[in-house]
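From the shared-data thread, chain only:
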Amino acid sequence: MRGALRLGARRADQKRRRGHAPRQNRHHLPLNHRILPIRAVSHGLATGYRFMKCISIPVAKDSSWQGGLPRSISGAYGICMSDSEPGRKPSKIMAAMTMDDIARLANVSKPTVSRALNGSTLVSAKTRDRVLEVARENGYAVNRNAQKLRQARTNTVAVVLDFGSHRHGAIGDPFIFELLAGVSEALSVRDVDLLLSPSGLENAAGFMELYRSRGTDGFIVLGQGTRDEMLRDLARKDVPMVVWGAVSQTAGYCAIGSDNLAGGRLAGERFISQGRRKWLFVGNIGHEEIRLRYNGLCEVAARMPEITIDLLPTGSMTFAATYQCATDYLRDGSKPDAVFAFSDTAAMAVISAFREQDHLTPRDYSLVGYNNIPPSAHFNPAITTIEQETSVAGAILVEKLMQRIDGARPKSVMLPTQIIVRET
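Structure, as C-alpha coordinates:
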Protein backbone atom coordinates (compact mmCIF):
# COMPACT_ATOMS: atom_id res chain seq x y z
CA MET A 1 0.00 0.00 0.00
CA ARG A 2 2.78 2.43 0.92
CA GLY A 3 4.62 1.52 -2.28
CA ALA A 4 1.52 2.26 -4.32
CA LEU A 5 1.12 5.64 -2.63
CA ARG A 6 4.73 6.53 -3.24
CA LEU A 7 4.40 5.47 -6.89
CA GLY A 8 1.29 7.65 -7.30
CA ALA A 9 3.01 10.62 -5.71
CA ARG A 10 6.08 10.13 -7.88
CA ARG A 11 3.97 10.09 -11.08
CA ALA A 12 2.09 13.19 -10.00
CA ASP A 13 5.45 14.91 -9.33
CA GLN A 14 6.71 13.91 -12.79
CA LYS A 15 3.60 15.38 -14.39
CA ARG A 16 4.11 18.66 -12.54
CA ARG A 17 7.73 18.81 -13.70
CA ARG A 18 6.60 18.31 -17.31
CA GLY A 19 4.30 21.28 -16.90
CA HIS A 20 0.96 19.48 -16.69
CA ALA A 21 -1.39 20.87 -14.09
CA PRO A 22 -3.77 18.49 -12.35
CA ARG A 23 -6.99 17.80 -14.22
CA GLN A 24 -9.70 20.26 -13.28
CA ASN A 25 -13.42 19.73 -13.19
CA ARG A 26 -14.86 21.44 -16.24
CA HIS A 27 -17.90 22.53 -14.27
CA HIS A 28 -15.64 24.82 -12.22
CA LEU A 29 -15.00 26.96 -15.29
CA PRO A 30 -17.17 29.97 -16.04
CA LEU A 31 -20.18 29.17 -18.18
CA ASN A 32 -18.77 30.66 -21.36
CA HIS A 33 -15.72 28.37 -21.18
CA ARG A 34 -17.69 25.20 -21.64
CA ILE A 35 -16.82 23.41 -24.92
CA LEU A 36 -18.14 20.40 -26.80
CA PRO A 37 -15.48 18.44 -28.74
CA ILE A 38 -16.12 16.48 -31.90
CA ARG A 39 -13.27 15.06 -33.95
CA ALA A 40 -9.97 15.62 -35.89
CA VAL A 41 -6.32 15.62 -34.75
CA SER A 42 -3.75 18.41 -34.52
CA HIS A 43 -0.56 18.38 -32.40
CA GLY A 44 -1.83 15.14 -30.89
CA LEU A 45 -4.97 16.85 -29.55
CA ALA A 46 -8.64 16.61 -30.45
CA THR A 47 -9.59 19.47 -32.76
CA GLY A 48 -12.43 20.48 -35.00
CA TYR A 49 -15.15 21.56 -32.64
CA ARG A 50 -18.71 22.55 -33.22
CA PHE A 51 -19.49 25.60 -31.12
CA MET A 52 -21.99 28.43 -30.89
CA LYS A 53 -20.47 31.07 -28.61
CA CYS A 54 -17.07 32.65 -29.30
CA ILE A 55 -14.44 33.28 -26.62
CA SER A 56 -10.67 33.81 -26.89
CA ILE A 57 -8.05 32.53 -24.40
CA PRO A 58 -4.64 34.24 -24.28
CA VAL A 59 -1.78 31.75 -23.85
CA ALA A 60 1.74 32.63 -22.74
CA LYS A 61 4.76 30.99 -24.35
CA ASP A 62 6.20 28.89 -21.55
CA SER A 63 7.26 25.37 -20.96
CA SER A 64 3.81 24.26 -19.98
CA TRP A 65 2.75 24.51 -23.64
CA GLN A 66 5.55 22.49 -25.15
CA GLY A 67 4.29 19.55 -27.15
CA GLY A 68 0.69 20.72 -27.07
CA LEU A 69 -1.83 22.35 -24.78
CA PRO A 70 -1.83 21.58 -21.06
CA ARG A 71 -3.88 18.52 -20.35
CA SER A 72 -5.96 20.49 -17.84
CA ILE A 73 -7.32 22.49 -20.79
CA SER A 74 -6.90 20.28 -23.84
CA GLY A 75 -8.02 17.09 -22.16
CA ALA A 76 -10.83 18.36 -20.00
CA TYR A 77 -12.16 21.11 -22.25
CA GLY A 78 -11.15 20.16 -25.78
CA ILE A 79 -9.45 23.47 -26.67
CA CYS A 80 -7.51 23.13 -29.91
CA MET A 81 -4.61 25.04 -31.46
CA SER A 82 -5.56 26.48 -34.81
CA ASP A 83 -1.98 27.48 -35.73
CA SER A 84 0.63 25.07 -36.91
CA GLU A 85 3.06 25.64 -34.05
CA PRO A 86 2.50 24.56 -30.46
CA GLY A 87 2.51 27.34 -27.93
CA ARG A 88 0.74 29.91 -30.07
CA LYS A 89 -2.49 31.61 -29.09
CA PRO A 90 -5.51 29.47 -29.97
CA SER A 91 -8.20 30.74 -32.28
CA LYS A 92 -11.72 31.57 -31.18
CA ILE A 93 -13.60 28.70 -29.64
CA MET A 94 -17.25 28.35 -28.86
CA ALA A 95 -19.49 26.92 -26.21
CA ALA A 96 -22.82 25.29 -27.10
CA MET A 97 -25.52 26.80 -24.97
CA THR A 98 -28.22 24.55 -23.57
CA MET A 99 -31.64 25.25 -22.14
CA ASP A 100 -30.18 24.64 -18.68
CA ASP A 101 -27.65 27.41 -19.32
CA ILE A 102 -30.37 29.85 -20.42
CA ALA A 103 -32.37 28.98 -17.29
CA ARG A 104 -29.40 29.77 -15.01
CA LEU A 105 -28.61 33.03 -16.78
CA ALA A 106 -32.23 34.16 -16.75
CA ASN A 107 -32.69 32.94 -13.19
CA VAL A 108 -35.74 30.85 -14.05
CA SER A 109 -36.53 27.14 -14.25
CA LYS A 110 -35.92 25.04 -17.35
CA PRO A 111 -39.68 24.47 -17.92
CA THR A 112 -40.15 28.25 -17.84
CA VAL A 113 -37.50 28.66 -20.54
CA SER A 114 -39.24 26.03 -22.66
CA ARG A 115 -42.60 27.72 -22.29
CA ALA A 116 -41.16 31.17 -23.01
CA LEU A 117 -39.43 29.99 -26.19
CA ASN A 118 -42.66 28.34 -27.35
CA GLY A 119 -44.76 31.44 -26.70
CA SER A 120 -46.84 29.88 -23.93
CA THR A 121 -49.37 32.13 -22.23
CA LEU A 122 -48.43 30.53 -18.91
CA VAL A 123 -45.34 32.76 -18.83
CA SER A 124 -45.66 36.48 -18.12
CA ALA A 125 -44.62 38.92 -20.82
CA LYS A 126 -41.82 40.28 -18.63
CA THR A 127 -40.34 36.83 -17.97
CA ARG A 128 -40.71 35.81 -21.61
CA ASP A 129 -38.91 38.94 -22.80
CA ARG A 130 -36.06 38.34 -20.34
CA VAL A 131 -35.65 34.72 -21.44
CA LEU A 132 -35.73 35.66 -25.13
CA GLU A 133 -33.16 38.41 -24.55
CA VAL A 134 -30.80 36.01 -22.74
CA ALA A 135 -31.26 33.44 -25.52
CA ARG A 136 -30.47 36.00 -28.21
CA GLU A 137 -27.42 37.36 -26.40
CA ASN A 138 -26.00 33.86 -26.04
CA GLY A 139 -26.80 32.64 -29.53
CA TYR A 140 -29.32 30.05 -28.39
CA ALA A 141 -31.96 28.89 -30.85
CA VAL A 142 -34.67 26.25 -30.56
CA ASN A 143 -34.14 23.14 -32.71
CA ARG A 144 -37.52 23.13 -34.41
CA ASN A 145 -37.09 19.65 -35.92
CA ALA A 146 -36.42 18.16 -32.49
CA GLN A 147 -39.33 20.17 -31.11
CA LYS A 148 -41.69 18.72 -33.70
CA LEU A 149 -40.65 15.18 -32.77
CA ARG A 150 -41.70 15.85 -29.18
CA GLN A 151 -45.05 17.29 -30.13
CA ALA A 152 -48.17 15.53 -31.34
CA ARG A 153 -48.22 17.71 -34.47
CA THR A 154 -45.53 18.85 -36.86
CA ASN A 155 -47.00 22.37 -37.33
CA THR A 156 -46.32 21.89 -41.03
CA VAL A 157 -48.80 21.95 -43.91
CA ALA A 158 -47.92 20.62 -47.37
CA VAL A 159 -49.21 22.77 -50.24
CA VAL A 160 -49.46 20.75 -53.44
CA LEU A 161 -49.53 22.43 -56.87
CA ASP A 162 -50.88 20.89 -60.06
CA PHE A 163 -47.57 20.54 -61.90
CA GLY A 164 -48.97 17.78 -64.11
CA SER A 165 -51.22 20.23 -65.97
CA HIS A 166 -48.27 22.39 -67.03
CA ARG A 167 -45.65 21.54 -69.60
CA HIS A 168 -42.39 20.29 -68.02
CA GLY A 169 -43.89 21.05 -64.61
CA ALA A 170 -43.41 24.81 -65.11
CA ILE A 171 -46.23 26.89 -63.61
CA GLY A 172 -46.41 30.45 -64.93
CA ASP A 173 -50.02 31.47 -64.29
CA PRO A 174 -50.12 34.38 -61.82
CA PHE A 175 -53.46 33.14 -60.47
CA ILE A 176 -51.79 30.14 -58.81
CA PHE A 177 -49.28 32.40 -57.10
CA GLU A 178 -52.05 34.69 -55.83
CA LEU A 179 -53.67 31.66 -54.20
CA LEU A 180 -50.32 30.50 -52.83
CA ALA A 181 -49.61 33.92 -51.35
CA GLY A 182 -52.96 33.91 -49.56
CA VAL A 183 -52.33 30.45 -48.12
CA SER A 184 -48.81 31.39 -47.03
CA GLU A 185 -50.03 34.50 -45.23
CA ALA A 186 -52.80 32.60 -43.43
CA LEU A 187 -50.35 29.89 -42.30
CA SER A 188 -47.81 32.44 -41.06
CA VAL A 189 -50.43 34.07 -38.84
CA ARG A 190 -50.85 30.68 -37.16
CA ASP A 191 -47.07 30.12 -36.99
CA VAL A 192 -47.38 27.01 -39.17
CA ASP A 193 -44.65 26.05 -41.65
CA LEU A 194 -45.41 25.65 -45.36
CA LEU A 195 -43.96 22.67 -47.24
CA LEU A 196 -44.31 23.47 -50.95
CA SER A 197 -45.10 20.59 -53.34
CA PRO A 198 -42.80 17.93 -51.87
CA SER A 199 -41.67 15.20 -54.26
CA GLY A 200 -43.30 11.79 -54.47
CA LEU A 201 -46.92 12.98 -54.48
CA GLU A 202 -47.90 11.59 -57.87
CA ASN A 203 -50.37 9.15 -56.34
CA ALA A 204 -52.33 8.48 -53.16
CA ALA A 205 -49.55 6.27 -51.76
CA GLY A 206 -47.13 9.20 -51.84
CA PHE A 207 -49.56 11.39 -49.88
CA MET A 208 -50.09 8.60 -47.34
CA GLU A 209 -46.36 8.02 -46.87
CA LEU A 210 -45.65 11.71 -46.20
CA TYR A 211 -48.57 11.96 -43.78
CA ARG A 212 -47.82 8.76 -41.84
CA SER A 213 -44.13 9.64 -41.56
CA ARG A 214 -45.18 12.89 -39.84
CA GLY A 215 -43.84 15.04 -42.64
CA THR A 216 -47.02 17.11 -42.53
CA ASP A 217 -50.23 17.54 -40.55
CA GLY A 218 -52.31 17.83 -43.71
CA PHE A 219 -52.51 18.95 -47.33
CA ILE A 220 -53.79 21.96 -49.25
CA VAL A 221 -54.15 21.01 -52.92
CA LEU A 222 -54.24 24.00 -55.27
CA GLY A 223 -56.02 22.72 -58.37
CA GLN A 224 -57.67 19.36 -58.90
CA GLY A 225 -56.40 19.06 -62.43
CA THR A 226 -57.12 15.52 -63.63
CA ARG A 227 -56.55 14.06 -60.14
CA ASP A 228 -60.13 14.03 -58.87
CA GLU A 229 -60.27 10.22 -58.51
CA MET A 230 -56.99 10.18 -56.57
CA LEU A 231 -58.27 12.93 -54.26
CA ARG A 232 -61.46 10.97 -53.62
CA ASP A 233 -59.33 7.95 -52.73
CA LEU A 234 -57.34 10.03 -50.24
CA ALA A 235 -60.56 11.27 -48.67
CA ARG A 236 -61.66 7.68 -48.10
CA LYS A 237 -58.33 7.05 -46.31
CA ASP A 238 -59.15 9.88 -43.90
CA VAL A 239 -56.11 12.03 -44.78
CA PRO A 240 -56.57 15.68 -43.63
CA MET A 241 -56.91 17.62 -46.87
CA VAL A 242 -58.69 20.54 -48.50
CA VAL A 243 -58.73 21.33 -52.21
CA TRP A 244 -59.03 24.47 -54.29
CA GLY A 245 -61.16 23.49 -57.25
CA ALA A 246 -64.60 22.42 -58.34
CA VAL A 247 -67.09 21.96 -55.52
CA SER A 248 -69.02 18.69 -55.61
CA GLN A 249 -71.36 17.21 -53.02
CA THR A 250 -70.22 13.68 -53.94
CA ALA A 251 -66.44 14.27 -53.81
CA GLY A 252 -66.02 13.18 -50.20
CA TYR A 253 -63.47 15.92 -49.46
CA CYS A 254 -63.70 19.59 -48.56
CA ALA A 255 -63.29 21.85 -51.60
CA ILE A 256 -63.14 25.62 -51.89
CA GLY A 257 -63.76 27.12 -55.30
CA SER A 258 -65.70 29.56 -57.41
CA ASP A 259 -69.05 28.87 -59.04
CA ASN A 260 -67.56 27.69 -62.31
CA LEU A 261 -70.94 26.80 -63.83
CA ALA A 262 -72.21 30.34 -63.18
CA GLY A 263 -68.98 31.72 -64.65
CA GLY A 264 -69.66 29.90 -67.92
CA ARG A 265 -73.20 31.23 -68.00
CA LEU A 266 -71.95 34.80 -67.52
CA ALA A 267 -69.63 34.43 -70.51
CA GLY A 268 -72.45 33.04 -72.69
CA GLU A 269 -74.81 35.85 -71.77
CA ARG A 270 -72.11 38.36 -72.67
CA PHE A 271 -71.76 36.81 -76.14
CA ILE A 272 -75.54 36.79 -76.74
CA SER A 273 -75.79 40.45 -75.74
CA GLN A 274 -73.25 41.25 -78.45
CA GLY A 275 -75.00 39.19 -81.12
CA ARG A 276 -72.27 36.52 -81.40
CA ARG A 277 -73.24 33.15 -82.89
CA LYS A 278 -70.07 31.16 -83.61
CA TRP A 279 -68.45 30.45 -80.26
CA LEU A 280 -65.17 28.84 -79.34
CA PHE A 281 -64.28 27.38 -75.93
CA VAL A 282 -60.55 27.04 -75.23
CA GLY A 283 -59.53 24.56 -72.52
CA ASN A 284 -59.14 20.92 -71.47
CA ILE A 285 -62.51 19.79 -70.09
CA GLY A 286 -60.76 16.82 -68.48
CA HIS A 287 -60.25 19.29 -65.61
CA GLU A 288 -63.37 19.42 -63.48
CA GLU A 289 -63.30 23.20 -63.03
CA ILE A 290 -62.89 23.80 -66.76
CA ARG A 291 -65.60 21.25 -67.61
CA LEU A 292 -68.08 23.16 -65.44
CA ARG A 293 -67.22 26.43 -67.19
CA TYR A 294 -67.81 24.76 -70.54
CA ASN A 295 -71.11 23.29 -69.34
CA GLY A 296 -72.31 26.73 -68.22
CA LEU A 297 -71.48 28.16 -71.63
CA CYS A 298 -73.33 25.31 -73.34
CA GLU A 299 -76.44 25.89 -71.19
CA VAL A 300 -76.73 29.43 -72.47
CA ALA A 301 -75.99 28.44 -76.08
CA ALA A 302 -78.79 25.86 -75.94
CA ARG A 303 -81.31 28.69 -75.72
CA MET A 304 -80.64 29.64 -79.35
CA PRO A 305 -80.38 26.88 -82.00
CA GLU A 306 -78.35 29.06 -84.36
CA ILE A 307 -75.44 29.22 -81.93
CA THR A 308 -72.60 26.74 -82.46
CA ILE A 309 -69.74 25.96 -80.08
CA ASP A 310 -66.32 24.59 -81.04
CA LEU A 311 -64.14 23.01 -78.39
CA LEU A 312 -60.38 23.62 -78.58
CA PRO A 313 -58.48 21.48 -76.03
CA THR A 314 -54.96 22.56 -75.09
CA GLY A 315 -52.04 20.22 -74.49
CA SER A 316 -51.21 22.00 -71.25
CA MET A 317 -52.25 25.14 -69.41
CA THR A 318 -49.23 27.21 -70.45
CA PHE A 319 -49.24 30.33 -72.61
CA ALA A 320 -47.08 28.68 -75.27
CA ALA A 321 -49.27 25.58 -75.61
CA THR A 322 -52.45 27.68 -75.89
CA TYR A 323 -50.84 30.03 -78.41
CA GLN A 324 -49.88 27.12 -80.66
CA CYS A 325 -53.35 25.55 -80.47
CA ALA A 326 -55.02 28.87 -81.33
CA THR A 327 -52.64 29.42 -84.26
CA ASP A 328 -53.39 25.96 -85.68
CA TYR A 329 -57.13 26.47 -85.22
CA LEU A 330 -57.21 29.61 -87.39
CA ARG A 331 -54.99 28.03 -90.04
CA ASP A 332 -57.67 25.38 -90.55
CA GLY A 333 -59.99 28.14 -91.74
CA SER A 334 -62.16 28.55 -88.64
CA LYS A 335 -62.86 32.08 -87.47
CA PRO A 336 -65.04 32.35 -84.35
CA ASP A 337 -66.86 35.53 -83.38
CA ALA A 338 -66.68 34.74 -79.64
CA VAL A 339 -64.00 33.06 -77.52
CA PHE A 340 -64.26 31.88 -73.91
CA ALA A 341 -60.80 30.98 -72.56
CA PHE A 342 -60.29 28.86 -69.44
CA SER A 343 -57.97 31.51 -67.92
CA ASP A 344 -56.73 35.04 -68.50
CA THR A 345 -53.32 33.68 -69.45
CA ALA A 346 -54.99 31.54 -72.12
CA ALA A 347 -57.00 34.58 -73.28
CA MET A 348 -53.75 36.53 -73.79
CA ALA A 349 -52.34 33.65 -75.83
CA VAL A 350 -55.47 33.54 -78.03
CA ILE A 351 -55.40 37.31 -78.64
CA SER A 352 -51.73 37.15 -79.61
CA ALA A 353 -52.19 34.17 -81.95
CA PHE A 354 -55.28 35.57 -83.66
CA ARG A 355 -53.63 38.98 -84.06
CA GLU A 356 -50.87 37.35 -86.11
CA GLN A 357 -53.56 36.37 -88.63
CA ASP A 358 -55.39 39.72 -88.49
CA HIS A 359 -58.32 38.36 -86.50
CA LEU A 360 -58.77 41.08 -83.90
CA THR A 361 -60.81 41.63 -80.77
CA PRO A 362 -63.18 43.40 -80.28
CA ARG A 363 -63.52 44.12 -84.01
CA ASP A 364 -63.93 40.53 -85.17
CA TYR A 365 -64.78 38.60 -82.02
CA SER A 366 -65.68 39.00 -78.37
CA LEU A 367 -63.50 37.38 -75.74
CA VAL A 368 -63.91 36.46 -72.07
CA GLY A 369 -61.14 35.14 -69.85
CA TYR A 370 -61.21 33.76 -66.31
CA ASN A 371 -59.58 34.69 -62.96
CA ASN A 372 -59.15 38.48 -63.37
CA ILE A 373 -55.41 38.42 -62.78
CA PRO A 374 -53.86 41.93 -62.51
CA PRO A 375 -52.25 41.89 -66.01
CA SER A 376 -55.65 41.33 -67.66
CA ALA A 377 -56.64 44.94 -66.94
CA HIS A 378 -53.46 46.28 -68.55
CA PHE A 379 -53.25 43.99 -71.56
CA ASN A 380 -53.89 45.49 -75.00
CA PRO A 381 -56.80 45.30 -75.39
CA ALA A 382 -57.95 45.04 -71.76
CA ILE A 383 -59.56 41.65 -71.18
CA THR A 384 -63.15 41.05 -70.15
CA THR A 385 -62.97 38.30 -67.53
CA ILE A 386 -64.75 36.28 -64.85
CA GLU A 387 -63.57 37.23 -61.37
CA GLN A 388 -63.18 34.83 -58.44
CA GLU A 389 -62.87 36.00 -54.83
CA THR A 390 -59.29 34.84 -54.36
CA SER A 391 -58.63 37.52 -51.73
CA VAL A 392 -60.32 35.34 -49.11
CA ALA A 393 -59.57 31.94 -50.64
CA GLY A 394 -56.24 31.41 -48.84
CA ALA A 395 -57.66 32.15 -45.39
CA ILE A 396 -60.66 29.87 -45.99
CA LEU A 397 -58.45 26.99 -47.20
CA VAL A 398 -56.26 27.20 -44.09
CA GLU A 399 -59.21 27.52 -41.71
CA LYS A 400 -60.96 24.50 -43.22
CA LEU A 401 -57.78 22.40 -43.05
CA MET A 402 -57.23 23.27 -39.39
CA GLN A 403 -60.79 22.20 -38.66
CA ARG A 404 -60.12 18.93 -40.49
CA ILE A 405 -56.88 18.33 -38.56
CA ASP A 406 -58.80 18.87 -35.33
CA GLY A 407 -61.13 16.04 -36.31
CA ALA A 408 -64.07 18.03 -37.69
CA ARG A 409 -65.73 17.52 -41.07
CA PRO A 410 -65.76 21.01 -42.60
CA LYS A 411 -68.17 21.74 -45.42
CA SER A 412 -67.13 22.84 -48.88
CA VAL A 413 -67.48 26.51 -49.83
CA MET A 414 -68.49 27.88 -53.23
CA LEU A 415 -67.39 31.47 -53.83
CA PRO A 416 -69.41 33.78 -56.09
CA THR A 417 -68.26 34.90 -59.53
CA GLN A 418 -68.90 38.09 -61.47
CA ILE A 419 -68.03 39.36 -64.93
CA ILE A 420 -65.63 42.28 -65.26
CA VAL A 421 -66.39 43.97 -68.57
CA ARG A 422 -63.47 45.62 -70.38
CA GLU A 423 -62.48 46.19 -74.00
CA THR A 424 -62.75 42.64 -75.38
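The chain has four domains: 19-95, 99-142, 156-258+392-415, 260-389.
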